Amino acid sequence: MPDQERRWDIKEATFVKSSAQPSESPNPDRPEYAFIGRSNVGKSSLLNMLVGRTSLAKTSSTPGKTQLINHFDVDGTWYLVDLPGFGYAKVSKKDRAKWMEVTKRYLDTRPNLMCVMMLVDSRIPAQNVDLEFMAWMGSVGLPFVLVFTKVDKLNKAERGTFLPAYEEVMLKQWHKMPPVFVTSSNSSEGREVLLRFVAQTNGLYQP
Ligand code: GDP
Question: Which of 79, 88, 146, 149 could bond 32 through an S-S bridge, CB–CB 3.0 to 4.6 Å?
Answer without folding.
Answer: 79
